[in-house]
Amino acid sequence: MKFATKLLHGTSCFDPVTGAASTPIYQASTFHQADLDRPGAYDYARSGNPTRHALEEAIAVLEGGARGFAFASGMAAISSVFMLFSAGDHVVVAEDVYGGTYRFLTKVLSRMNIDVTFVDTTCVEAVERAVTPRTRGIYLETPSNPTLKVTDIAAVCHIAKAKNIIVIVDNTFLTPYYQRPLELGADIVIHSATKFIGGHSDVVAGLAVTKDAELGEQLYFIQNGMGAVLGAQDSWLVMRGLKSLKARLDVSTQTAEKIARWLANHPSVAKVHYTGLAGHPGHQLQSRQASGHGAVLSFDVGSRERAKALFDRVTLPIVAVSLGAVETILSYPAMMSHAAMPAAERERRGITDGLIRLSAGLEDADDLVRDLEQALEGVEAALSESKSKAFSGA
Amino acid sequence: MHLETKLVQAGVGRDTITGAVSFPVYYATAYRHPSLGQSTGYDYTRTANPTRKVLEEAIAEAECGDAGFACASGMAAIHTVMGLFSQGDHLIVSLDLYGGTYRLFEQVLSRYGLQFSYVDLRDLQAFAGAIRPETKAVLIETPTNPLMQITDIACVAGIAKRSGLLTIVDNTFMTPYYQRPLELGADLVLHSGTKYLGGHNDVLAGLIVTKGAELSEKVRFLHNSIGATLGPQDCWLLVRGMKTLALRMERHQSNALQVARKLREHPAVTDVFYPGLDDHPGYEIQSKQATGYSGMVSFRVRFSAQVGPFLENLRIISFAESLGGVESLCTYPATQTHADIPQKIREYVGVCDRLLRLSVGVEHPDDLIHDLIQALDASLVAEGCRR
């Protein structure tokens, strides 16, 4: 079955009792037990809810894993997965990991005596060097947020396999439509389903998929034990979004590519990060391990002053945190997604004061380009005006 | 303002645009920034959501605390609070405890070097004696689940304060309608909002209420960083449930008292545990520290072989996990809520295989009593036949 069909028919998504084409929302916290000796499939909604279960099965099928899990947020998925490790364990983590993950690892998990080494995972040798006898996990984000560095998933998994290390991949940016890390050797895939999977800026959710059943059983214990599960209504919304994932990503990716090419030729733009551009250092690798480049790009306008002027002038994109929605979203990583990271760490990772992240939505691509064009022109005009004022003042 | 009024008024007048009396469900995950560096107060829903805020302020006000936090489940609330502690820290916890909490502590958090001692907190000397240099907090469930043991919150909190410990109270069974631990000296209150606060067996939720700016800020950081937050629809359902909390609690309680009295008259029952019975060992403390006794009743049948037939013969009362809803539920702790506690500990505490827990709903009391009596009668007959 092809991916587009799998999105709709990968699991039996209709209600067996009524035939309803959309899975019902089971807003029940508890389930009647008919027999003391034969517990039913569901007893308490934290342990299992039919609506959540339908979503969990759907994502497992799409990622090609044994078992799926739905969490209250992407961070709840990430923090739950990290609970697979114990005090004294060591984890190697991609250095330009999402700011919220960085905060959780350095401010919460560190107090539980889990050592984390941040490395540039685009360099496989650096990953290998960082591995110690206590290393139990490697955590990747590829392409990374927001500078879109590409890590060779298969190569990292190869190192890990020999040493019995679990590889976890945050697949939020590409989704299983473009990239399936479990097929490349990873053990666990994580999603902020708030992004492309939900796709409508209307639900906060996290997902995780394990490759094998045994790891699935361990993660199930943690999901149920810690209880950071996704509610029934939200599970339904994520499933609803999932059905149009391919249709949305096809359009958004085309738009992102068009905008990236246009920005790359614009004199006011110092740098464009998009793996679909042939000049991007990760272009070849990305084209090999994924079937698309996704809808997120970032570009550098040179300074905070210029970035602010641009944000004030755009009319179509929403200026907000988050990404992966039907609406185009512009974010300012230095103050938003990566605000939790110290300035020096940020700069070292290329998250400069002039960097802007764009997540392409479903608006017409020409409208978006025109909007960015007028905004960038306005920035230049405003800055040259203020400069000439400064001269005349002197 | 009285609690009933506070609860009913939650969110009223907050929607200044339309005047909607029921505050809207904000499904937005992202919020448009007016300009770079400016925020409406909402940036990303995990950090703050307008609907969740109504709920968080309502529970903080009801518990007389400074800040409230809504989590994906009661266990998510407990887990989030445990993020306050670091490797090597030690906590003292009620001996008779919800099985899910015990499982989280023993099978997950112990791997991170947190240590837990389970102490009968009715015994203040035992509590004081369990305090070590690395002890950071005491976690009280009162009444305990399922044996309804009563801990003197003010006494434990007093000892805790002198020893520099945080006092955390799981107030799920009583709700702020009957008991407000923060007013008795506790620092932090936990709820499984799934239970009485939601009250309709239809939403899974957890709540945290903190006292003091510093503790509130720490929990706010953990709540956002760990991310086990509650979705907006569930927040709205919980607020909706809380508006009728007072009415429901009164009915739960009066039904529970009638059920408890009838149960002890039945020959198939050996023990009844309900803190509202005036010969319950915790009755005096409960009457002093709370304004009511809530709707949870546990009881032991004479023979474990009665349990199966009893549950099968119930007609109105559902055999299901959970509690605190309008529908009456009966739970068998040994295999359900407390299955994760080792049998030896379970039996030492008194959660034996003859113990049943009733969450008395708001049906007519005569129907509930009739259902229980016929099922108990049937269980005696079945047990007799087997002999």
From TrEMBL, chain B:
Q: Which UniProt keywords apply?
A: Pyridoxal phosphate, Transferase
Please provide, in alphabetical order, the Gene Ontology terms of the cellular component aspect for this entry. cytoplasm
**What are the required cofactors?**
pyridoxal 5'-phosphate
Q: Which Gene3D superfamilies match?
A: Aspartate Aminotransferase, domain 1, Type I PLP-dependent aspartate aminotransferase-like (Major domain)
Question: What is the name of this protein?
Answer: Cystathionine gamma-synthase/O-acetylhomoserine aminocarboxypropyltransferase
Q: Which domain of life is it from?
A: Bacteria
Sites of the modification N6-(pyridoxal phosphate)lysine? 195
Instruction: Answer whether the UniProt record assigns the keyword Transferase to this protein.
Output: yes
Matching InterPro entries, A to Z? Cys/Met-Metab_PyrdxlP-dep_enz (IPR000277), Cys_met_metab_PP (IPR054542), PyrdxlP-dep_Trfase (IPR015424), PyrdxlP-dep_Trfase_major (IPR015421), PyrdxlP-dep_Trfase_small (IPR015422)
Q: Name one GO molecular function term.
A: transferase activity
* GO annotation, biological process: methionine biosynthetic process; transsulfuration
> What family does the database annotate?
Belongs to the trans-sulfuration enzymes family.
Source species of the chain: Brevibacillus borstelensis AK1
